[in-house]
Write a structure and sequence with these properties.
With about 120 residues, the protein is mainly alpha-helical. It contains two helices and three strands. It has a three-stranded antiparallel sheet, with no helix packed on it. The longest helix has about 60 residues.
């Protein structure tokens, strides 16, 4: 009979609701429990962030000695970084990558494109 099926669905819903409530209660407890540790965790996170910033600065400063990032790129080319933080260029039309930009006259005359991120 169809009625039996409906009841089964209701039971499943009830069980799911109960489970959700239980999970919420648990997470509240956990938050209370870990509240006292959060200050320590925050300090650790801050320290980690500082280290990361320093590393990023070193990378950027180290590799950008004579790279003219402000110059408008030839159409189709965009600057990118490899996993080591080194700057390279990629032609989005052809998929070609290069450490240096191709020397083109038009790069000088073109207004800078929409600069992204």
């Amino acid at each position: 009979g169809e009625e039996g099926e409906m009841e089964k669905d209701e039971d499943i819903k009830k069980a799911a609701d109960a489970m959700t409530k239980k999970m919420r209660a648990i997470s509240k407890l956990e938050k209370k429990k870990y509240g006292e540790y959060s200050k320590v965790a925050q300090a650790a996170a801050d320290a980690e962030k500082k280290v990361q910033e320093t590393v990023d600065e070193a990378k950027n400063g180290g590799y950008q000695m004579d790279v003219k990032t402000s110059a408008p790129l030839p159409s189709g080319w965009e600057a990118a970084r490899d996993p080591d933080g080194r700057l390279y260029y990629q032609n989005t039309k052809t998929g070609v990558t290069a450490w240096t930009l191709p020397e083109t006259e038009e790069a000088e005359e073109q207004p800078p494109g929409g600069e992204e991120g």
